[in-house]
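Supplementary Methods S3. Input chains for the assembly prediction are listed below.
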Amino acid sequence: QVQLVESGGALVKPGGSLRLSCAASGFTFSEYFMTWIRQAPGKGLEWISYISSSGNTIYYADSVKGRFTISRDNAKNSLYLHINSLRAEDTAVYYCARGGWGQAPNYWGQGTLVTVSS
Amino acid sequence: EIVLAQSPGTLSLSPGERATLSCRASQTVTGFYLAWYQQKPGQTPRLLIYGASSRATGIPDRFSGRSGSGTDFTLIISRLEPEDFAVYYCLQYGSSPLTFGGGTKVEIK
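Predicted structure tokens for the full assembly:
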């Protein structure tokens, strides 16, 4: 069955950096767009970024452009999100999901919590 | 960027009643690429509807999606079951950036 498992969330000071990972299994990872979505405590869902199956097409929300970098390793069935210059407003649960532009994200991981606080 | 406005913010209904949730887009949603998700407290969002009106795998037929145009979308729950009380989000995935609506909470009256 399809499984997505995020890791890498942590308590980080403002201005810090982090790398989130998402391990995929149960499907042919290299055939799907992948997406990162976040949810701040008590708030709604916010789409952050997607990457095409080959990695050639990438898009970011304006709120994270220039600070976040999405990448993937199809040989390792893994998705990544590099986060720099963390701000308090980046505090959220970060989900990876299968799908993206033209493909409704239909499988989600359980999420990993990023807390930005001094 | 396509802005999605969901209404109402909160819907107070009783089990067995019909729920009608709205999602209005600021521009035409390309290809009717509009999805609906259900999220319960402490849980991951679950895909209910994609392509504006197609039910995802395993979703009961009391959930249906409609589109009156490329900008007005509706999620209907024909008869609310106790497990349907949750927050519902729409997502457009046809134009970049992808965007979510702010959500509608369906609560027990």
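The longest strand of chain A covers residues 92-100. The mean pLDDT of chain A is 97.
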